[in-house]
Each structure stands twice: as structure tokens, then as C-alpha cells.
Write a structure and sequence with these properties.
Length: 411
């Protein structure tokens, strides 16, 4: 699914070209335009082309669509916009009655017809006020979509959450009308006006992404944050969370290998080899209570890693007859469900001994939170090889290190 950044999120960045540099560096497919990009559309198109970014859709005020339609058409031609989206209404322009919303729907229907005649698509972007029931029990969004049957909907999941409603219900109710989604989270504090990066707020996104995969006309996932204190952090963390949430599939127990761990005798020599020769990059270290190194975490790619544990006995690697690795780790989407399934098949879960000399079977799920902030459980194979099951936490050290890397590369 193409990923776009709504450029309203970048309004406080020093320059729009700086924002485009960061968006391209992180790996987005394009942007969703807004009024910031309308002054010189031809010049802005050149900036997009320099970075191989598309602008398939843009937010255009209703007033402009009704009073300067030819200018809107000119914008779509210069910027290669296919979907024109009304971003919302100012507070003093919002209807207060069912009849008022019905009249607005008729106006939107006229605009939709004019755009359709030119081969363009028209959509509405919601806030929270369109979702609140009117005295007759209907909601403004229901009335608008009924009054303009050719108009599509760009669902802003963040505003649905802000309204205290279930986004899955709205996504399923209008599955055939939804062509784009704004994906943003909410958080209780007000440091960023109550908004949060995708996956870093208080919402459960697994059901939302499962529903998104079933939408027949969905054409774009849009990153948006109404008040980010750090734009680079926002676009980096959103992309990491989005790619992870998009990859997870219900009913699939294992997502793949995340890391291999080696017990090493000479940590400095091993680090020199894996960093200098192999090209792996150190992401972080975890200390023991006395300050010595517990492990060093090296990046192979954004989903696979190598752990080096110092303190091995002996100077040489084990012979082929000896067990030669510390443990293997399998990423799981839901550690609770995976452990339940394994126990149903006869597996006994394990915990580490206090002296870290090995793992032993215990009763129950043995689910814990590791030093890196991820939930985990362990099992042993028949020969005693240790297998870790890890549910990666978006706020854990691994994704934090990835976000810092992407943020740094985008500056």
C-alpha cells in the first residue's frame, strides 16, 4: 500500500524542501498536498520529481472548489493530483441541523460531478464533529455521503479515536467508499495537543490494520500528526510502526527470525570483525548491574540482528559436535496467543535461572518483559536448544534505535 505524508504535518518545518528531503530519506512513496503547496505548483512539482515523490491527492478547501474551480483544475494538472479532498470545515461554517448538513451534501454533489467529468476523484476528510449524532439520530457523515453518492471518504482514524468511537465500525460500514486513511494515534497528555505517532499512543491497531486490508478501494495510507514537536521523529516512527503493523497477519504464529546470539570470548575482536568486515552496525548495549557489558546489539537489517554476549569460556568456537549458539529468537505478533497454541500442542514454557546458567521448564505461560522492553517467553527443543519467542514493543529499544537511525538519516 502506498504511504504518503500529509504536508500539513510539516507546516512548522523550516522549509518544505527540507520536509521533502526527510520524507524521501525515510522511504515514503509520496505526499498528500495542502494549501502550503499551492503558491507555485509547477515549481513544487519539480521538487517532488527531484526526490521521486508523488502527490496523488491533496486537501483543497471547499471555498476554493466552489469559487475558484479553474484554479483547482490547474493545480491537479501541474501536481498530477488524482483525488481532491475537502479537509473539513471551519467551526463557523459547520451546519447546526440535519437540513444544513443535507444542503451541504447537495453542494458537495455538484462539486463531485464537475470533478468526475474531468476524470478526477472527490473525497471528504473527517474530523470528530461529523461523527456525533444529531437530534434525529443521524450523523453528519452519513448525511454527506448520502447526499453526494459519488463522493468518497478519506477516513481519519485519529479523529474517530478522538471522538471515542470504534474506527473498525466506520471502516466496515463504508468499506466501498473509503479511498484513503489518515493513521494517527492519541495520547492523554497535551504535549502535542493530545496526538501521538502511529503505534505510540493508547490505541490498539491490530484490528484496524486487519480491517484496512479488506477495503476494496483503499489507495493510500497517510501519515499525519497535527502538532509534532519533531517532524523527523514523527515520519521515522510512523514508517517503522506502519511497516510492522502492515506485515503482521492474524493466525500466523511466527513472523521470522529476529536475531542470533553468540557467546564470545574476545568482545573487542568480535565487534571489530562484525562491524568492520561484515558491515553490521552497533545499535545499543545493555549493561550488567556492575556496569560491565551484558550484550551488544548489532544490526544486520531492520528486522534481523546479531547479539554478542561477552564472557565465553575458552578462546575458540565449539567443535561441530558441541552446541554452538546461545539461542534463537522467533518474532511473534501476539505472544499470549502463540504461547497458548504451543501449550495446547504439549509444549512447556521456560524461565531463565537466576544465575543465567540456562532455562528450566515451569508451569504456566512464563511470559515476561525483557530488559529491552519487549514481551517474551521461552521453550526448549528436545536436545535443550533454547528458543525465545519475542513480541516486539514499538516503544522498546530495538524500534527506538531504528527510529533514531531513520531520523538521523533524514536530517
Amino acid at each position: 500500500m502506498p504511504t504518503l505524508v500529509q504536508l500539513y504535518s510539516a507546516r512548522n518545518v523550516q522549509s518544505q524542501t527540507e520536509a521533502l528531503d526527510r520524507i524521501a530519506a525515510v522511504g515514503y512513496d509520496g505526499v498528500e498536498g495542502c494549501w502550503l503547496n499551492f503558491e507555485d505548483p509547477a515549481a513544487f512539482r519539480k521538487e517532488l520529481d527531484l526526490r521521486s515523490l508523488a502527490m496523488p491527492q491533496a486537501h483543497v478547501p471547499l471555498e476554493m472548489l466552489e469559487n475558484a474551480f479553474d484554479r483547482v483544475v490547474d493545480l491537479t494538472r501541474h501536481l498530477d493530483i488524482y483525488t481532491v479532498i475537502v479537509p473539513g470545515l471551519p467551526e463557523d461554517g459547520r451546519p447546526s441541523s440535519t437540513d444544513g448538513w443535507r444542503n451541504l451534501g447537495e453542494r458537495l454533489d455538484i462539486v463531485e460531478g464537475k470533478l468526475r467529468a474531468l476524470g478526477l476523484r472527490f473525497a471528504w476528510h473527517n474530523h470528530d464533529f461529523e461523527l456525533i449524532s444529531l437530534p434525529d439520530g443521524r450523523t453528519p457523515i452519513d448525511i454527506l455521503l448520502e447526499g453526494a453518492p459519488g463522493m468518497d471518504w478519506e477516513v481519519d482514524v485519529g479523529w474517530i479515536l478522538r471522538a471515542g468511537q470504534d474506527p473498525v465500525l466506520w471502516l466496515t460500514s463504508y468499506a466501498g467508499r473509503i479511498v484513503a486513511v489518515h493513521l494517527k494515534d492519541i495520547q492523554p497528555d497535551i504535549l502535542e495537543e493530545g496526538w501521538a505517532d502511529l503505534g505510540f499512543g493508547e490505541s490498539n491497531w491490530s484490528d484496524v490494520f486487519r480491517t484496512l486490508r479488506a477495503l476494496p478501494r483503499l489507495a493510500a495510507h497517510v501519515a499525519e500528526h497535527d502538532a509534532p514537536l519533531d517532524f523527523s521523529r514523527f515520519v521515522s516512527r510512523w514508517k517503522i510502526a506502519h511497516d510492522r503493523l502492515s506485515a503482521l497477519r492474524p493466525g500466523r504464529s511466527f513472523e521470522g527470525f529476529t536475531h542470533v546470539a553468540l557467546k564470545v570470548h574476545d568482545l573487542d575482536a568480535q565487534l571489530s570483525f562484525y562491524e568492520r568486515v561484515m558491515g553490521f552496525r552497533e545499535m545499543f548495549r545493555l549493561p550488567n548491574d556492575d556496569g560491565s557489558v551484558f550484550l551488544v546489539y548489532l544490526r544486520i537489517n531492520d528486522r534481523q540482528y546479531l547479539e554478542l554476549f561477552p564472557g565465553a569460556i575458552g578462546e575458540h568456537a565449539p567443535t561441530p559436535e558441541e552446541r554452538g549458539y546461545q539461542h534463537m529468537c522467533l518474532e511473534v505478533a501476539d505472544v499470549d496467543a502463540t504461547v497458548e497454541a504451543l501449550r495446547a500442542r504439549g509444549a512447556r514454557m521456560c524461565l531463565w535461572r537466576d544465575d543465567l546458567s540456562g532455562i528450566c521448564e515451569v508451569e504456566g505461560t512464563a511470559i515476561t518483559t525483557g530488559r529491552d522492553g519487549n514481551r517474551q517467553s521461552w521453550i526448549k527443543d528436545p536436545e535443550g536448544n533454547r528458543i525465545e519467542l519475542m513480541e516486539l514493543n514499538l516503544a522498546g529499544m530495538q524500534y527506538g534505535a531504528m527510529g533514531a537511525r531513520l531520523s538521523s538519516s533524514a536530517r
